[in-house]
Amino acid sequence: MSTILRRRSGLGLLAALAVWLLALAGTPAVAADASATPAAAQVERQQTQPLNNAPVWREVRSGEVHFTTVRGPETGVLIQSEGQTWRQWRNGPVTFWGGVLLLVVPTAIGLFFAVKGAVKLHGAPTGRRMQRFSTFERVVHWGTAISFVVLGITGVCILFGKHFIEPVFGNAVLGGLLWAGKNVHNYVGPLFGVFTLLMILAFLRDNVWQAIDSVWIRKAGGIASGEHVPSGRFNFGEKTWFWIGVTFLGLIVAGSGLVMDFPNFGQTRATLQLANIIHGVGAILLIALSLGHIYMGTIGVEGAYQSMKTGYVDETWAKEHHEHWYDEVKAARTGNP
Amino acid sequence: MARMKFLCDAERCIECNSCVTACKNEHEVPWGVNRRRVVTINDGVPGERSMSVACMHCSDAPCIAVCPTNVIYQTEEGVVLHDKDGCIGCGYCFYACPFGAPQFPNGPAAFGARGKMDKCTFCAGGPEENGSQAELEKYGRNRLAEGKLPLCAEMCSTKALLGGDATEISDIFRDRVLRRGKGVEAWGWMTAYGKDKEEAK
Question: Quick check: A134 contacting B, CB < 8 Å?
């Protein structure tokens, strides 16, 4: 660009370009004068070309609301073209790449487990137990977890059931399953939203950034090396799940779900289509992430499941997995959970 | 085999809504559902046009493509029908349809409890046995099985709405366009370019 500007002829070219751009900007302004509205364009067309009613035909495809005596959602719209876009997104990338992700992630986790196995305690359990989660925290966790699993399974069936349930069990089974599934999904959905909000409130304090988290990032959590990495009550992996999974994706999925679950606030089809795509993409990512969390909380780490089931962990477990939290509890600088 | 189609001649439709009424009466359509409606573009402005619209029985129907329970299907005659027994009321067909044909008896209800989808059947009933009581209650009358064409088109006062085999109705429409008092002018200079703007005033 600079070499062109340095040349003398470049300036002339630039001036010509400016004049041309000005002319271009001026033309539509003049044209718009005569046909400010489609209706005005139509009136003008009736005079100049009575046999050619193109303005009307442009209106047909515009998606604007026109006059009709029939009452109902968007009955005045003759043709809505966005439906096709939604169909292509939903039946295309969302179904295909979503399906790929939901097959690849469990496979990868299964391979990881087969190769590395569970993270076991190195030291002997002391037999002394310390409280890791309060009753409130456990109720909130399991409320979210159970509603999430129910929503995940029913949701996956709604999007993918056609491709894996119908070929195996037939259309009648798919229909019956989805009839129940859709109702469960629609009524459990708002409950998940409430639990997600409670979850964020319950665990927010211990999920803020701590200096120690940089160590965890540098050592990649010791997941591959098996190295001991000290952390606070929650390590950086858990914090990532809290912020990206529970908070960001959880709220997006719950919010977009409510838009579709309560269509009785005059939402247009365009709004519902957008909500559906956001809901689908968000939910598939959330399910993929949750598989990692579920793995770590069950078979991946010895003692992790017991901590959320009973609320208590052995002191050895606390020292090996969350050393700084253990130290703080021992020094009575923090409440147990 | 015939390929069934609707065609609405916008030069003829006078927005009398008798197609809407005929359909609603013939099929005893649920309250709040209108399988057919007439939309007027720029109502009250010179050059306004009205068009009657219902399910257009698309060849590559978006509703069929997005239905999660796979209960919408196309007959050999090109008519798009659905099995209400398997409908879960998710509303996806309503999201996808360009013409707003799929409708729900409960409307946009809370918790998505819309009820089972209802739409124009091209007067061809549904998957139940032809002419049975079950078919009548779920889908309305099956006129096609009786050798009759859709009632909306039959009742149209100006014969703007044509329904039937695609080759037949397009022949009728083509003939109309050529004869419509415009003769060779139908696609001539005036249609393409018109009068000068000053001259028109």
Answer: no
Question: Are A87 and B71 in contact (CB < 8 Å)?
Answer: no
Cα B52 from Cα B15, distance rounded (Å)? 8
Look at B91 and A263 and tell me if their CB atoms are within 8 Å.
Answer: yes
Domain that holds residue A56: 2-60
Cα distance between residue B147 and residue B140, in whole Å: 16
Minimal CA separation from B70 to chain A, in Å: 7
Per-residue model confidence (pLDDT) at position B197: 58
At B121-152, the pLDDT tens digits run: 999 999 999 999 999 999 999 999 999 999 99
Same domain, yes or no: A87 and A168: yes
What six digits make up the tokens of A202? 């319950």
**Is the CB of residue A263 less than 8 Å away from at least one CB of chain B?**
yes
DSSP E strand stretches across chain A = 67-68, 129-131, 312-314
Give the alpha-carbon dihedral of B149, B155, B157, B162, to 10 degrees: -20
Dist. CA A260–CA A280, nearest whole Å: 12
- Over residues A194-219, the pLDDT tens digits come to 999 999 999 999 999 998 888 889 88
What is the per-residue pLDDT across A272-312, written as a single tens digit (0 to 9) for each?
A: 999 999 999 999 999 999 999 999 999 999 989 999 999 99
d(Cα A301, Cα A117) in Å, to the nearest integer?
A: 9
When comparing pLDDT for B69 and A17, which is higher? B69
Whose tokens are 């993929």? That residue is A288
Name the residue of chain B whose CA is nearest to A266's CA: B108
ipTM: 0.89
- Which of B40, B48, B113 is closest, CB to CB, to A68? B40
Give me the half-sphere count of Cα atoms (radius 13 Å) on the Cβ side of residue A220: 4
CATH number belonging to the domain at B8-164, selected among 1.10.630.10, 3.30.70.20, 3.10.20.740, 3.40.50.1980: 3.30.70.20
Tell whether B183 lies on the interface with A, counting CB pairs under 8 A. no
Say if residues B41 and B51 touch (Cβ distance below 8 Å).
yes
Between A and B, how many CB-CB pairs are < 8 A? Answer: 181
pLDDT at A191 over 80: yes
Which one of A47, A62, A86 makes the best mutation probe of the B interface by having the most chain B beta carbons within 10 Å?
A: A47
Minimum-distance CB partner of B88 among A77, A79, A182: A182
Domain boundaries, chain B: 8-164
Place of tokens 């310390």: A130
Residue A335 lies in a domain: no
Give yes or no for B186 touching A (CB within 8 A): yes
- Does the CB of A117 have a partner CB in chain B at under 8 Å? no
Query: What is the C-alpha to C-alpha distance for residues A175 and A181, in angstroms, rounded to an integer?
Result: 10
Find which of A61, A70, A77, A192 to mutate to test the B interface (most B CBs within 10 Å of its CB).
A70
B20, B88, B113 member nearest A70 (Cβ):
B20
